[in-house]
Amino acid sequence: MTKIQIRRERPDDEPATRLVHAAAFGRAGEGEPAECGLVDALRLSDGWLPRLSIVAEIDGVVVGHNMCSRGHVAVAGGVPVACVGLGPIGVLPEHQSSGVGSALMWAMVGAADALDEPLIALLGAPDYYRRFGFVASTEVGIDAPDPAWGPFFQVLPLTASDSSIVGRFAYAAPFDDLG
Ligand SMILES: CC(C)(COP(=O)(O)OP(=O)(O)OC[C@H]1O[C@@H](n2cnc3c(N)ncnc32)[C@H](O)[C@@H]1OP(=O)(O)O)[C@@H](O)C(=O)NCCC(=O)NCCS
User: Fold this and answer.
1) How far away, in angstroms, is 77 Cα from ligand 1 center?
2) Distances in Å between the alpha carbon of 145 and those of 12, 29, 106?
Protein backbone atom coordinates (compact mmCIF):
# COMPACT_ATOMS: atom_id res chain seq x y z
CA MET A 1 0.00 0.00 0.00
CA THR A 2 1.32 3.44 -0.95
CA LYS A 3 2.31 5.56 2.01
CA ILE A 4 1.02 9.14 1.75
CA GLN A 5 2.70 11.63 4.05
CA ILE A 6 0.94 14.84 4.95
CA ARG A 7 2.59 17.97 6.34
CA ARG A 8 2.44 21.75 6.21
CA GLU A 9 4.05 23.27 3.16
CA ARG A 10 7.51 24.81 3.54
CA PRO A 11 9.07 27.67 1.55
CA ASP A 12 11.16 25.19 -0.46
CA ASP A 13 7.99 23.40 -1.62
CA GLU A 14 7.03 26.28 -3.89
CA PRO A 15 8.42 24.83 -7.17
CA ALA A 16 6.88 21.42 -6.49
CA THR A 17 3.48 22.85 -5.64
CA ARG A 18 3.56 24.89 -8.86
CA LEU A 19 4.17 21.69 -10.82
CA VAL A 20 1.23 20.06 -9.04
CA HIS A 21 -1.23 22.82 -9.92
CA ALA A 22 0.13 23.24 -13.44
CA ALA A 23 -0.44 19.54 -14.09
CA ALA A 24 -3.73 19.23 -12.19
CA PHE A 25 -5.42 22.26 -13.76
CA GLY A 26 -3.48 22.66 -17.02
CA ARG A 27 -4.96 22.03 -20.45
CA ALA A 28 -2.90 21.24 -23.52
CA GLY A 29 -1.98 24.37 -25.48
CA GLU A 30 -3.37 26.82 -22.93
CA GLY A 31 -0.23 27.80 -21.01
CA GLU A 32 0.01 28.03 -17.27
CA PRO A 33 -3.37 27.71 -15.55
CA ALA A 34 -4.70 30.60 -13.46
CA GLU A 35 -4.41 28.49 -10.31
CA CYS A 36 -0.60 28.80 -10.39
CA GLY A 37 -0.82 32.58 -10.26
CA LEU A 38 -3.50 32.37 -7.60
CA VAL A 39 -1.29 30.26 -5.36
CA ASP A 40 1.57 32.75 -5.77
CA ALA A 41 -0.71 35.70 -5.00
CA LEU A 42 -2.23 34.01 -1.98
CA ARG A 43 1.20 33.27 -0.50
CA LEU A 44 2.05 36.97 -0.78
CA SER A 45 -1.27 38.17 0.63
CA ASP A 46 -2.11 38.80 4.25
CA GLY A 47 -5.01 36.39 3.80
CA TRP A 48 -2.83 33.31 3.40
CA LEU A 49 -3.28 30.65 6.09
CA PRO A 50 0.06 28.81 6.05
CA ARG A 51 -0.93 26.47 8.88
CA LEU A 52 -3.71 25.07 6.68
CA SER A 53 -1.76 24.92 3.43
CA ILE A 54 -0.67 21.34 3.16
CA VAL A 55 1.34 19.06 0.90
CA ALA A 56 1.05 15.32 0.32
CA GLU A 57 4.24 13.39 -0.39
CA ILE A 58 4.86 9.93 -1.75
CA ASP A 59 8.43 8.66 -1.50
CA GLY A 60 9.61 12.19 -0.70
CA VAL A 61 7.99 13.76 -3.77
CA VAL A 62 5.21 16.34 -3.46
CA VAL A 63 2.21 14.90 -5.34
CA GLY A 64 -0.61 17.02 -3.94
CA HIS A 65 -1.19 20.43 -2.40
CA ASN A 66 -3.97 22.57 -1.02
CA MET A 67 -4.08 26.26 -0.22
CA CYS A 68 -6.23 27.86 2.44
CA SER A 69 -6.82 31.57 2.91
CA ARG A 70 -8.84 33.86 5.09
CA GLY A 71 -12.42 34.38 4.00
CA HIS A 72 -15.22 36.19 5.77
CA VAL A 73 -18.96 35.86 6.13
CA ALA A 74 -20.63 39.27 6.16
CA VAL A 75 -23.16 38.88 8.96
CA ALA A 76 -25.99 41.42 8.76
CA GLY A 77 -25.45 44.18 11.32
CA GLY A 78 -22.36 42.53 12.76
CA VAL A 79 -18.63 42.16 12.36
CA PRO A 80 -17.62 39.90 9.43
CA VAL A 81 -16.89 36.40 10.70
CA ALA A 82 -13.45 35.05 9.79
CA CYS A 83 -13.45 31.58 8.28
CA VAL A 84 -11.46 29.43 5.85
CA GLY A 85 -11.53 29.54 2.06
CA LEU A 86 -10.15 26.36 0.54
CA GLY A 87 -8.53 26.35 -2.85
CA PRO A 88 -6.97 25.54 -5.03
CA ILE A 89 -6.43 21.86 -4.25
CA GLY A 90 -4.66 19.69 -6.79
CA VAL A 91 -3.08 16.27 -7.18
CA LEU A 92 -0.66 15.21 -9.93
CA PRO A 93 -2.76 13.41 -12.57
CA GLU A 94 -0.72 10.21 -12.28
CA HIS A 95 -1.50 10.07 -8.56
CA GLN A 96 -5.20 10.92 -8.71
CA SER A 97 -7.84 8.48 -7.48
CA SER A 98 -5.47 6.87 -4.99
CA GLY A 99 -6.51 8.75 -1.87
CA VAL A 100 -4.12 11.71 -2.01
CA GLY A 101 -6.89 14.31 -2.31
CA SER A 102 -8.80 12.70 0.54
CA ALA A 103 -5.70 12.67 2.74
CA LEU A 104 -5.20 16.39 2.09
CA MET A 105 -8.86 17.14 2.75
CA TRP A 106 -9.10 15.23 6.02
CA ALA A 107 -5.84 16.72 7.30
CA MET A 108 -7.00 20.23 6.45
CA VAL A 109 -10.48 19.71 7.96
CA GLY A 110 -9.03 18.30 11.19
CA ALA A 111 -6.49 21.08 11.50
CA ALA A 112 -9.07 23.80 10.83
CA ASP A 113 -11.39 22.30 13.45
CA ALA A 114 -8.56 22.13 15.99
CA LEU A 115 -7.75 25.78 15.28
CA ASP A 116 -11.37 26.74 16.11
CA GLU A 117 -12.12 27.88 12.59
CA PRO A 118 -15.92 27.98 12.31
CA LEU A 119 -16.29 26.83 8.74
CA ILE A 120 -14.56 26.00 5.48
CA ALA A 121 -15.91 27.22 2.13
CA LEU A 122 -14.98 26.05 -1.36
CA LEU A 123 -16.06 26.05 -4.98
CA GLY A 124 -16.03 22.57 -6.46
CA ALA A 125 -17.86 19.44 -7.51
CA PRO A 126 -20.49 18.43 -4.91
CA ASP A 127 -20.02 14.77 -5.86
CA TYR A 128 -16.46 14.96 -4.58
CA TYR A 129 -16.75 17.23 -1.55
CA ARG A 130 -19.93 15.82 -0.02
CA ARG A 131 -17.89 12.81 1.19
CA PHE A 132 -16.11 15.18 3.57
CA GLY A 133 -19.40 16.60 4.87
CA PHE A 134 -19.64 19.69 2.67
CA VAL A 135 -23.14 20.91 1.83
CA ALA A 136 -24.47 23.55 -0.55
CA SER A 137 -23.77 26.82 1.26
CA THR A 138 -27.37 28.00 1.02
CA GLU A 139 -28.46 24.99 3.12
CA VAL A 140 -26.84 26.72 6.10
CA GLY A 141 -27.65 30.31 5.15
CA ILE A 142 -24.39 31.29 3.48
CA ASP A 143 -24.48 32.96 0.07
CA ALA A 144 -21.77 32.43 -2.53
CA PRO A 145 -19.66 35.41 -3.66
CA ASP A 146 -21.34 34.84 -7.04
CA PRO A 147 -24.92 33.53 -6.88
CA ALA A 148 -24.40 31.82 -10.27
CA TRP A 149 -22.17 29.24 -8.53
CA GLY A 150 -25.29 27.60 -7.08
CA PRO A 151 -24.66 24.18 -5.47
CA PHE A 152 -20.98 24.24 -6.47
CA PHE A 153 -20.29 26.69 -3.65
CA GLN A 154 -20.18 24.53 -0.54
CA VAL A 155 -19.38 24.87 3.12
CA LEU A 156 -18.46 22.61 6.01
CA PRO A 157 -19.47 24.05 9.41
CA LEU A 158 -17.01 22.97 12.12
CA THR A 159 -17.25 22.62 15.89
CA ALA A 160 -16.84 26.37 16.48
CA SER A 161 -19.68 27.22 14.10
CA ASP A 162 -23.05 28.48 15.22
CA SER A 163 -26.34 29.39 13.61
CA SER A 164 -25.61 33.14 13.74
CA ILE A 165 -23.05 32.77 10.94
CA VAL A 166 -25.25 33.58 7.98
CA GLY A 167 -24.59 35.99 5.13
CA ARG A 168 -22.46 36.38 2.02
CA PHE A 169 -19.03 34.77 1.91
CA ALA A 170 -16.05 36.67 0.50
CA TYR A 171 -12.70 35.10 -0.42
CA ALA A 172 -9.31 36.70 0.22
CA ALA A 173 -8.53 39.51 -2.24
CA PRO A 174 -6.40 37.48 -4.73
CA PHE A 175 -9.50 35.51 -5.76
CA ASP A 176 -11.02 38.74 -7.13
CA ASP A 177 -8.35 38.81 -9.85
CA LEU A 178 -9.10 35.26 -10.99
CA GLY A 179 -11.94 36.34 -13.30
C1 LIG B 1 -10.09 16.81 -7.18
C2 LIG B 1 -8.76 16.16 -6.80
C3 LIG B 1 -7.98 17.12 -5.89
C4 LIG B 1 -9.08 14.88 -6.01
O5 LIG B 1 -7.86 14.27 -5.67
P6 LIG B 1 -7.69 12.67 -5.75
O7 LIG B 1 -6.40 12.35 -5.13
O8 LIG B 1 -7.93 12.23 -7.14
O9 LIG B 1 -8.91 12.22 -4.82
P10 LIG B 1 -9.16 10.85 -4.04
O11 LIG B 1 -8.20 9.81 -4.52
O12 LIG B 1 -9.19 11.15 -2.63
O13 LIG B 1 -10.62 10.51 -4.50
C14 LIG B 1 -10.85 10.04 -5.77
C15 LIG B 1 -12.34 9.94 -5.99
O16 LIG B 1 -12.85 11.26 -6.20
C17 LIG B 1 -13.56 11.28 -7.40
N18 LIG B 1 -13.45 12.61 -7.98
C19 LIG B 1 -12.34 13.31 -8.28
N20 LIG B 1 -12.67 14.49 -8.83
C21 LIG B 1 -14.02 14.53 -8.87
C22 LIG B 1 -14.95 15.47 -9.36
N23 LIG B 1 -14.57 16.64 -9.89
N24 LIG B 1 -16.25 15.17 -9.24
C25 LIG B 1 -16.67 14.00 -8.69
N26 LIG B 1 -15.83 13.07 -8.23
C27 LIG B 1 -14.52 13.33 -8.33
C28 LIG B 1 -12.88 10.22 -8.26
O29 LIG B 1 -13.73 9.78 -9.28
C30 LIG B 1 -12.67 9.12 -7.24
O31 LIG B 1 -13.87 8.44 -6.98
P32 LIG B 1 -13.93 7.02 -6.20
O33 LIG B 1 -13.47 7.26 -4.79
O34 LIG B 1 -15.36 6.65 -6.27
O35 LIG B 1 -13.00 6.14 -6.97
C36 LIG B 1 -7.93 15.77 -8.04
O37 LIG B 1 -8.69 14.89 -8.84
C38 LIG B 1 -7.46 16.95 -8.90
O39 LIG B 1 -6.37 17.48 -8.68
N40 LIG B 1 -8.27 17.33 -9.90
C41 LIG B 1 -7.89 18.39 -10.83
C42 LIG B 1 -7.90 19.74 -10.14
C43 LIG B 1 -9.25 20.05 -9.52
O44 LIG B 1 -10.30 19.91 -10.16
N45 LIG B 1 -9.23 20.47 -8.21
C46 LIG B 1 -10.46 20.72 -7.46
C47 LIG B 1 -11.04 22.06 -7.70
S48 LIG B 1 -10.25 23.33 -6.70
Assistant:
1) 38
2) 33, 30, 25
